[in-house]
Amino acid sequence: MASYLRAQATEFLRALRLHRETGGGSPARADTRGGAASGAEGAVDAVRALRRSARRISGSLHTFRPLLDPAWSEEMRPELAWLSGTLGLEHACEARLRRLLLALQRLSGSGSTVFPAPSVNSTAVAGAARSADSGPPVQAGPERGNLTVGAAKAGALLERQLTLARTRAHSTALQALGSARFHAVADRVAVLASEVPLTPAAATTDLRPLAAAAEERLTNAIATLPLLTAGHPYNAEALIHGLSPDPSPHPQDGPWHQVRLLLRLHRYAREVLHGDADRVDVRLLAAGQALNRHRDASEAAAAAAQAARTPRIAPATAYALGVLHADQRLEVEAARFAFQQSWLKQPVSAP
Amino acid sequence: MASYLRAQATEFLRALRLHRETGGGSPARADTRGGAASGAEGAVDAVRALRRSARRISGSLHTFRPLLDPAWSEEMRPELAWLSGTLGLEHACEARLRRLLLALQRLSGSGSTVFPAPSVNSTAVAGAARSADSGPPVQAGPERGNLTVGAAKAGALLERQLTLARTRAHSTALQALGSARFHAVADRVAVLASEVPLTPAAATTDLRPLAAAAEERLTNAIATLPLLTAGHPYNAEALIHGLSPDPSPHPQDGPWHQVRLLLRLHRYAREVLHGDADRVDVRLLAAGQALNRHRDASEAAAAAAQAARTPRIAPATAYALGVLHADQRLEVEAARFAFQQSWLKQPVSAP
């Protein structure tokens, strides 16, 4: 376990160095175009690697808590959670926008040329500054209520709103990476890379019961999911509160998000025990992907509903956002079905 | 076959008599309330029975064409199609409205009291005369873009539009039943009840090859359906052109509607051969129900999209109609899945 933590800490420091080398620290990155693209890509990779090891360190601190110095561990975990949350937001906004624009394109018919291809990376902050619902340069027919124009306008509205959110998330991430708080985390990780603060009893403690407990938390949480319903296709569960007065109308998503986190902790615990990430359990991988898709679709559906609350939008725009919202809630339902299928495919292999 | 036609013709005449006795001919029916309800119900049953036998007579004329006097048969079929089409429209509008209001209620959350229960039968023509999108008496919060108010308004809009359509369909049906054209059909059916105009060769002709040909037309049409795709749940096929610029964006529905008609002809041909409707093939029944659901959801989705084109509706109303449209397209997809499942469940039993 100590060697796993040391390895993850080393990965963290390597990613941090890579991030500095690729100019990721420059606040001009949001306006980066063309020439600096490879540098920007490197910075994106570096941030991803930073989050990856931060999650793994944090997860191990949680699962193998009894083996680690409690004071150190308790102080470290919230800092790692803050870091990976802050660094993940920009990517999440970008992925959400891409998902929604692709869905709009699919809904407009694959052969349609009216709706422009997703252009997440080429959209600058300028786009976000346009006034609400001014719409893209689309050749609209003279007839009222043209629903395709609605799709294009909905896409433009989402692009403005999510690009703005992404730009803000990017600034926040840059500020975080330059903050004293971050440097304190990085210093602690640097210490971790050479010396893991274990308890005296750690050397003689068996890791397997702790890993088994993580797995049990996962299986217990899965047991509370409505898997029987999820296994019946087209059960219409995910959309059932789509027009509910509740401001957060999908509390049903919560337990699935929770299982997603527990599945990740289980996977990391397996990595600690088996030493190599190569020995990937296909079933766990498929289940995890289904839950990622569930989370992404759930948040994309919420973003579409949120955009529909923008004042003064055209009815055709609102209609397209309604179709889009329902489409993403359907994706939520499909992801649950996929999880049910992959999870019940074969019994849990012993760790 | 002749006895089957005679029996159906007798049913037709009985339904016609019932319709006259229950006051179905009175043009006041659309305003009928309370006391006259049982009479109105009887009239509805009578119209359903009229359509039922008209469809069966027409179907038999088609499948067993070579056995019947061609001139008589060619003249009779379009008249029966006109009749059952005209008589079916009112029921279709009513069922469509009920389906859409129930869907809106489901989408608003089952425990919601904001959205009123479907009230198809209690809504009079007066409702249709209200101005577009004036909305129902719902206690709306002061905040803009309240999506639940959107659901209630969408429901009210659909109720007005479909009630108006239903009222028109009712008038048209009444006019049809009082027309010279209808009396000519009824006279022909009366003749059919006693004497079926067979060809000289009919007495020695085997019915089975003709019934087998009807079945073959069905299986050939089913072979062209994308059943492999339909068998994969959540394939997102049915919604794919939901925001397409095409004015009739779902040509993909056509082949399924065609199979629905061919399945019905096959079922009627089996009735002719086996003499009793009791010997129902469960598989055919389930497949037919799936295709009825497919047709109903397809038309309901189109009605929601059509309502969204109403000028000057609120964005929240349009949003709710978009969600509703997508929900019904999902029903279309679910119906295809159900058809695929029921059809492939067991091999075709020999007639």
Description of the molecule:
The structure is a homodimer of 351-residue chains. By secondary structure, chain A is mostly helical. Chain A has helices at residues 2-21, 37-63, 70-107, 125-129, 147-178, 180-194, 208-223, 227-230, 254-274, 282-308, 315-343. In chain A, helix 7 (208-223) packs antiparallel against helix 9. The relative contact order of chain A is 0.13.
One letter per element, helices H and strands E, the order of chain A comes to HHHHHHHHHHH
Structural class of chain A: mainly alpha
- Largest interface: pair, residues per side: A-B, 52 and 52 residues
Radius of gyration of chain A: 23 Å
Number of helices of chain A: 11
Residues in helix, % of chain A: 55-70%
End-to-end separation of chain A in angstroms reads 15 Å
Q: What share of residues are in beta strands of chain A? A: under 5%
Q: How many E strands of chain A?
A: 0
Oligomer: homodimer
Q: What general outline of chain A do the C-alpha atoms trace? A: globular
Average the pLDDT over all residues of chain A and give the rounded result.
83
- Biggest β-sheet strands, sense, barrel of chain A: none
Poorly predicted segments of chain A = 26-35, 111-145
Topology:
The structure is a homodimer of 351-residue chains.
Chain A (H helix, E strand, L loop, with lengths): L1 H20 L15 H27 L6 H38 L17 H5 L17 H32 L1 H15 L13 H16 L3 H4 L23 H21 L7 H27 L6 H29 L8
Q: Would you kindly provide a brief summary of this structure?
A:
2 copies of one chain form a homodimer. Chain A is mainly α.
